[in-house]
Amino acid sequence: MKTVVTLVLVLSVITGCATQGVVARGVGSEAPSLTGTAADPFPPMAAPSQDQNMMPRVVIPVTGGAPVVGIPVGGGLYVPVTGGAPIPGILTGP
User: Fold this and answer.
1) Per-residue pLDDT tens for 25-40?
2) What is the pLDDT of residue 77?
C-alpha cells in the first residue's frame, strides 16, 4: 500500500513539474523575461460605479408587472422591500 501511495505522489510531482513549463534563457534580447511587457493576466478592475446609494428605489421589473420598490444589489438586480427573490429591473428615476 505504501508503494502505491509513493508512486502516486511521485507521478503527481513529475506531471506537475512538466505542466508548469520551464523558462528558457537565451542569449540576446529575444530571451523571455519574467518582467516582460506581455499582456497583464490580471488587468486592473474597473472603478466601481459612482452610484453607491443603497436606498430603496422604484423600479419596473424587466419581466413585466407593476413597479416595485426595491433595494439595489448590483447588476441590475433589486430586492423588493416587501421580501422575495431579487428581480431584474429598470430604474425609473435618475
Assistant:
1) 555 555 555 555 566 6
2) 92
Contact present, 92 and 58 (Cβ < 8 Å): yes
Answer whether 78's CB lies under 8 Å from 86's CB: yes
Would you place residue 20 in the very low, low, confident or very high pLDDT band (cuts 50, 70, 90)? low
Average pLDDT over residues 80-91: 92
DSSP code string of the chain: -HHHHHHHHHHHHHHHHHHH------SSTTS--TT--PPPSSPPPPPPPS----S-EEEEETT-SS-EEEEEEETTEEEETT-SS-EEEEES--
Region of 76 (left: φ > 0; alpha: ψ -120 to 50; beta: rest) is left
Quote the longest CA-to-CA distance of the chain.
Answer: 70
Radius of gyration of the chain (CA): 27
